[in-house]
Amino acid sequence: xxxxxxxxxxxxxxxxxxxxxxxxxxxxxxxxxxxxxxxxxxxxxxxxxxxxxxxxxxxxxxxxxxxxxxxxxxxxxxxxxxxxxxxxxxxxxxxxxxxxxxxxxxxxxxxxxxxxxxxxxxxxxxxxxxxxxxxxxxxxxxxxxxxxxxxxxxxxxxxxxxxxxxxxxxxxxxxxxxxxxxxxxxxxxxxxxxxxxxxxxxxxxxxxxxxxxxxxxxxxxxxxxxxxxxxxxxxxxxxxxxxxxxxxxxxxxxxxxxxxxxxxxxxxxxxxxxxxxxxxxxxxxxxxxxxxxxxx
Length: 296
Fold this sequence. Notes:
By secondary structure, the chain is α/β, with parallel strands linked by helices. Helix content is 42%, strand content 15%. The chain is globular.
C-alpha cells in the first residue's frame, strides 16, 4: 500500500485555500460595498481539453464568489478574421470596468498560435490574471509575485505547505515555457534554490535529472521520467498531463519511481487544483488593485 504522506495532495491544499479566498472576498466586498470580482475567459476554437479546463475554472470560481463568463470565439477559415475577433474582444474587456480579470485559454488553435505573444500583450496588465503580459513578466524578474503565473505558484505552494525545503536545494526544471519553466526560475531563485533548466535540446538529460533534490517536469510525454533518471529520495513534481487509451498519465512513471522518490505529486489532484486556485487568487488581486485604486 502506498504511503499517503509520500503523495503530495494538491487538491486538499487547494480546497483549504479556496475556502480562505472565499472568506476574503466576502470581507472585502462588504467593506467596500462593491459587487463581486468578475473573470472573463476567452476560449478560441473547440479544443476538447481546453473546454474541460475552462469549465473547471468556471465552476470553481463560482464556489469562491468570483463571477465568471466564458467568451467563445469561433475559429474561422481565415486566420486573420479569427485574430481580429480575439483582439476586438480583448479591447472590449480591457475597457469594461465590470471585468477585473481576463484569461486567454491556451494553447490557441494552430492557425493563430504564432500570434500568442502579440495577443497576450494586448491584455491590460492589471487584468492579466495569467501573469503572461510582458510587463508582469518584468515584475516577476524583480521578484514581484502579484501576478505570477498560476502553475508555478501552485508548485511553490505545494512544496511550502508540505514543509519541503527549497533554500539551498538543487532544483531541476524540465520545461522552459512562459507558463511554467521561465517564471519558476525566478520564484525558486527568490527562495534561494539552485536552479537548472532543461529542455528538448538538453544533452544527457538523465545525468542532470539525477542531480535534482527537487525535480519538476512539464513536457507532456506520458511516463517519460523513469526510476533510473532520479536520485534516491528526490521530490518529484509532475505537471504533465497526457491521455492514452482513455487514461490520464503524467510525465513521470508514478508506479516505477514511487519507491525511490521521497515525495511525489499525483497526476490527478496534484498541481492542477492549485493552478486553478491561483488563477482565482490572481483575479482577486487584480480586483483589489482596481477597486482600491479607484477608491484611493
